[in-house]
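hey so i finally got around to running both of the ones u sent me last week. sorry it took forever, my laptop kept dying halfway thru and i had to restart like 3 times lol. anyway pasting them below in the order u listed, first the sequence line then the structure token line for each. didnt double check formatting much so if smth looks off just lmk and ill redo it

first one:
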Amino acid sequence: MKGIIHLVFFAVLAYVAWDYYSFTTDAQSELGLKRASLALKRSDAATKEKKFAEAKDFYKNLEKKREELRGLSNELATMKLTLTETNDIPAFMKLVLTEAKRVGLTVTGLSPLASQAKTYYIEQPFDLTFQGVYVQLIAFLDRLAQAERIVRVDDFTVKPKNNTSKNSRFIDLEGTIKVRSFVYLGTTEDEVASKGGSDALKGAGAKKPMGKQ
């Protein structure tokens, strides 16, 4: 009888041990399911925390990009101030002649050439012929470089005048210079920006000049 009791005790102990082992190791047991659920929640929390950190960095960088775009927009607006929006040839010729007169350079000819339309601006060239000394020429070019509007000077042809006296303190020069002025062409984006909107750019399509030559 005593042996039977021992046998039953060991059988019960073995069953309890097996049940405990299954409870703690079987993925389908109540403990296993709870562990899996907890691991899933931890993984989900870690994923959300990572996404939150990424979103935080994104908005931080986005604000930085916005500041950069504001700075570029202000810089562009400042640059536009140096570009007239009308091709006023007489006014520009008056500017050139006035600056030449201030330094004593004699302009013997100033003729507008055919304008060239670019994507965002019109280039208006002029042929200028002059007479004067080297110092006057340099001073004239310097004054044009400091003008409020953008002026480009290139294609020099300079030579001493044939009638220059050998006893003259300065060598008289004559030559030609190509002077270029620029006219800004407005775009669809300029009109939208002036109205403070950005959604309209989606349907703006191709950029179309809005300025006048």
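and the second one:
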Amino acid sequence: MIEPDHPELSIGQQCKLLSIARSSFYYTPKGETELNLGLMRLIDEQFLETPFFGVRQMTWHLRNDGHLVNEKRVRRLMRLMGLMPIYQKPNTSRPAKGHKTYPYLLRGLRVDRPNQVWCSDITYLPMQRGFLYLVAIMDWHTRKVLAWRISNTLEADFCVEALNEAVHKFGAPEIMNTDQGSQFTSFAWTDRLRRTGVRISMDGKGRFLDNIFIERLWRTLKYECVYLHAWETGSETKTGIRKWMTFYNHKRPHSALGGRPPAVVYWQRNNIKQPDQQVQRVA
């Protein structure tokens, strides 16, 4: 709201009119320290191996590796990363207060065609001097990534943008499955699905395997791409992710598909010739 080059009002006068301290205008967030960013990278790697590690177990793991951390720090970093461990009791992926949750619709369901079921999830992306978040929309049957977005916050907007792109390019699915995170229980997300006629399915609390295919995607992405690079900027990260997603969809053999890439199977089973623009651009 403050215009530094205002012709009549100085910055101090504008701050006074807005009832804020002038120091607030000049304040620049410092971000996380190099030590914390290193710990977040270690936590992320370990969480891929043991998604049931809570704050206490993750703290013990880091201490056993020689890192002097307490539970307070680990709890804050895991919350910042959006990591919600799996407990034996229902205590995972809590929606925001007042958000409606939906039942899990895939138990016992035979998924045998593209666009029958889509799934979506968010993961943390470490960078050299910071971090970002990635959301992806995946076709459950063929494992094809239909759309994705990168954001520096965990607001629902970038998830809805990815959903809109996927629906625009490929039509609407019959069912969309996600966890019970606040982004996916938000009005913006659920209203978009309802208006499109999509049935909403959400993982049961503490059920890591309910959305297993996209969890496997994150593991593959991080070990084959993210952990091999030290991206410094958001644009570098976006370019790297786009390159890998194109490779994954169109060239990487998938064991569940008889060695064929996901995009090839997606278009074959839709009885549609794969468009050239889809080969060149995934998101």
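quick thing i noticed on the 2nd:
The longest strand covers residues 117-126.
anyway thats it, ttyl
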